[in-house]
C-alpha cells in the first residue's frame, strides 16, 4: 500500500540522524525551562502534594483510543493510561502508603490549564512535546513517537499533502495540527490555503468527515487508525501520511517536581527495558488492538534508546 511505502521510506530520515541526536530526543533532553528562583522556591514538588493529599490526580482521556478511553464497561483504559497506572503503583511503593488514583477527564484544550492550576498532577494522553509547551510545563521521558496523518474517503482524490490545498481539513481543537497547517498555509506549501475546521474531540471530527462537512480529518496517526477500525465499514476510509512532521509524545507534569519526575521516568524506562512497553503496544496497536498500527523503525529505535541500562 502507498501508506506502508511512505512509512518505509520516510519518517523524515530519523534513522539517518546521529546517534547522539536521536538519543537526546529519545530521552526527552534537553527540557530546559525558564523559571525565576523566587518562583521555584515556593513550588511544591508533585510527590509532596500526593503524599500530603493521598491522591494522585491523573488527567485521562475519555475518547482518544488507543491512548486513553472508556471501554464498554466504563473502565479507564488505553496505552498511555496503562503506563500511568504503573507510575501510580510505583508512587505507592515510594511513599509506602496507599494512594488514591483519581481519574480527571481532560481534553486537548483543558490538559495544560488543569495541570497548571493543580487539578491534575500529570496528563496521560497523546500530548506532543513542543517548544512552546516546555515554557509552561515539564515532560517525562517520551513514551511514543509518531506523526500527523490524514483520513479521507477511500475513493477521495486526496492522496498527498499537495492534494489538501484548497480543501476543508478538520483538526482537533487545541492540538498541534492547527499550527502545523497554518504554517504550511503561510509558507506557501499549500496553495490555495486549506480551510481549517477545529473539533472538540476526534469522534466529532470523523462524523463531520462522514457527512461531507470536511474533506479530510487530520491528527496523530494511531488515533486515525482507531477511528477507521471502529467505523461501520472500515474499507470506506483511507489514511495517508502527508510527510509533514514527526514528533515525540510524553506526559506533561508540573515544573519543579524532580522527585516525582524521577519516579515517572524510571517507570517508563523500566517498561521499555522489561518488555512491558512492547506488550502494551501489541495490546493496543497490534493486529487485534483498537488501532492496528505498524511499528515503525523510528519507534523501535525510541524503545531501544529509552531502555536505559540498570547500572
Structure write-up:
With 311 residues, this protein is of the alpha/beta class. It has 2 domains: 178 residues, D-Maltodextrin-Binding Protein, domain 2, CATH 3.40.190.10; 93 residues, D-Maltodextrin-Binding Protein, domain 2 (3-Layer(aba) Sandwich), CATH 3.40.190.10. 39% of the residues lie in helices and 18% in strands. The chain has 12 helices and 15 strands. The strands form 5 sheets. It has a 5-stranded mixed sheet with strand order 11-10-12-9-13, with helices on both faces. A hairpin with a 5-residue loop joins strand 3 and strand 4. Helix 2 crosses helix 12 and helix 5 packs across helix 10. The longest helix is centred in the first third of the chain and has 17 residues. It is globular and about 60 Å long. The termini are far apart. The N terminus is likely disordered.
Write the layout of secondary structure elements.
Layout: H1 2-9, H2 19-27, H3 37-41, H4 46-53, E1 55-60, E2 63-64, E3 68-70, E4 76-77, H5 79-95, E5 100-105, H6 111-116, E6 122-124, E7 138-139, E8 144-146, E9 148-153, E10 168-172, H7 177-187, E11 195-199, H8 202-211, E12 216-220, H9 221-230, E13 237-240, E14 247-249, E15 252-253, H10 258-274, H11 276-285, H12 297-305
Parallel strand pairs: 1-5, 1-6, 10-11, 10-12
Antiparallel strand pairs: 2-3, 3-4, 7-15, 8-14, 9-12, 9-13
Helix pairs in contact: 2-12, 5-10
Amino acid at each position: 500500500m502507498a501508506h506502508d511505502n511512505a512509512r518505509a521510506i520516510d519518517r523524515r530520515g530519523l534513522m539517518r540522524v546521529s546517534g547522539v541526536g536521536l538519543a537526546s530526543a529519545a530521552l526527552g533532553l534537553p527540557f530546559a525551562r525558564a523559571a525565576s528562583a523566587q518562583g521555584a522556591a515556593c513550588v511544591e514538588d508533585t510527590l509532596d502534594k500526593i503524599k500530603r493529599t493521598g491522591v494522585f490526580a491523573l488527567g485521562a482521556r475519555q475518547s482518544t483510543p488507543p491512548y486513553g478511553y472508556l471501554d464498554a464497561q466504563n473502565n479507564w483504559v488505553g496505552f498511555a493510561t496503562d503506563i500511568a497506572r504503573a507510575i501510580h503503583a510505583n508512587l505507592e511503593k515510594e511513599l509506602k502508603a496507599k494512594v488514591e488514583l483519581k481519574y480527571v477527564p481532560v481534553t486537548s484544550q483543558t490538559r495544560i490549564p488543569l495541570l497548571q492550576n493543580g487539578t491534575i498532577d500529570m496528563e496521560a494522553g497523546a500530548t506532543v512535546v513542543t517548544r512552546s509547551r516546555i515554557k509552561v510545563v515539564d515532560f517525562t521521558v517520551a513514551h511514543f513517537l509518531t506523526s500527523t496523518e490524514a483520513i479521507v474517503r477511500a475513493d477521495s482524490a486526496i492522496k498527498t499533502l499537495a492534494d489538501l490545498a484548497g480543501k476543508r481539513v478538520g483538526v482537533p481543537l487545541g492540538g498541534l495540527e492547527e499550527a502545523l497547517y497554518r504554517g504550511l498555509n503561510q509558507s506557501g506549501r499549500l496553495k490555495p490555503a486549506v480551510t481549517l475546521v477545529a473539533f472538540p474531540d476526534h469522534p466529532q471530527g470523523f462524523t463531520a468527515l462522514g457527512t461531507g462537512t470536511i474533506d479530510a480529518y487530520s491528527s496523530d496517526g494511531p488515533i486515525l487508525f482507531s477511528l477507521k477500525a471502529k467505523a461501520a465499514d472500515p474499507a470506506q476510509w483511507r489514511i495517508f501520511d502527508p510527510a509533514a512532521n514527526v514528533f515525540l509524545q510524553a506526559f506533561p507534569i508540573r515544573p519543579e517536581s524532580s522527585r516525582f519526575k524521577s519516579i515517572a521516568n524510571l517507570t517508563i524506562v523500566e517498561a521499555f527495558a522489561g518488555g512491558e512497553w512492547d506488550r502494551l503496544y501489541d495490546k493496543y496497536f497490534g493486529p487485534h488492538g483498537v488501532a492496528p498500527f505498524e511499528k515503525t523503525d523510528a519507534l523501535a529505535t525510541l524503545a531501544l534508546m529509552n531502555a536505559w541500562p540498570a547500572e
